[in-house]
TrEMBL record:
The keyword Transmembrane helix applies. InterPro entries: YczE/YyaS-like. It comes from Modestobacter caceresii. PANTHER family: INTEGRAL MEMBRANE PROTEIN, INTEGRAL MEMBRANE PROTEIN-RELATED. It comes from the Bacteria. This is Membrane protein. Pfam families: DUF6198.
Length: 218
């Protein structure tokens, strides 16, 4: 029995490059939003809160939480793809590297553009790594896996995101206008970017990829 879904046979190098580029850009964009200090996506709020409360870097917590969420796939009988495992390993490393290399601005005139660029790049990154067709991220897969058991995907996704956000905020994570802007913007951004990156087979039809989970604002 395979523990990981095999990589599709067609255009493997292209898929691998698209996946890696998407994951690196995702980690980079998350770091930009964190450095802006105006609030970030719910999961990043949780990782920041865990870092402030218990030590370790935000990137390390990103990896640890991703691994724990992936374990939750087991009772759901979900099988990760290469992209799922890459998501767990790459995002945290790219995030910590960004936080180390990009200084945190002190003026609002720099923080606001940094936040907006981070959100935009995150939408592009999401479209890229999902478009590679190598498996959903562990957090997205958890939502779709629960929904496949008869639950509403909208309700499942919203419940998880709100719970993660509340926990992160209670632990000291930064919730702000960036959190709201991300929630409002990421759905439309991925809706635009995913078709541009989704790989197609020789007939011109989209290759099989993991469907983008619905976001609370969809």
């Amino acid at each position: 029995m395979l523990l990981i879904d095999p990589m599709p046979l067609d255009r493997r190098p292209t898929r691998a490059v698209l996946l890696l580029a998407g994951l690196l850009l995702y980690g980079f964009s998350s770091g930009l939003m964190l450095q802006a200090g105006l609030g970030q996506m719910p999961w990043a709020v949780l990782h920041q809160g865990l870092s402030r409360s218990f030590g370790l870097s935000i990137g390390t917590w990103t990896i640890l939480v991703g691994a724990l969420v992936l374990l939750a796939w087991v009772p759901l009988r979900l099988r990760p793809g290469v992209g799922t495992v890459g998501n767990v390993l790459v995002l945290g490393v790219a995030l910590d590297a960004t936080l180390a290399l990009v200084p945190a601005p002190t003026t609002l005139s720099v923080r606001v553009p940094l936040l907006l660029v981070g959100i935009l790049l995150n939408g592009i990154a999401t479209g890229a790594y999902i478009g590679a067709g190598l498996g959903a991220g562990p957090r997205d897969g958890l939502s779709t896996g629960l929904a496949a058991r008869g639950m509403s995907l909208r309700v499942v996704r919203t419940t998880i995101e709100v719970g993660v956000l509340a926990t992160g905020w209670a632990l000291g994570g930064n919730v702000g206008v960036g959190t709201v802007l991300y929630a409002l913007g990421i759905g439309p951004l991925v809706h635009r970017t995913l078709p541009a990156f989704r790989l197609r087979d020789g007939s011109g039809t989209p290759a099989a990829v993991t469907r983008v989970p619905a976001l609370p604002n969809d």
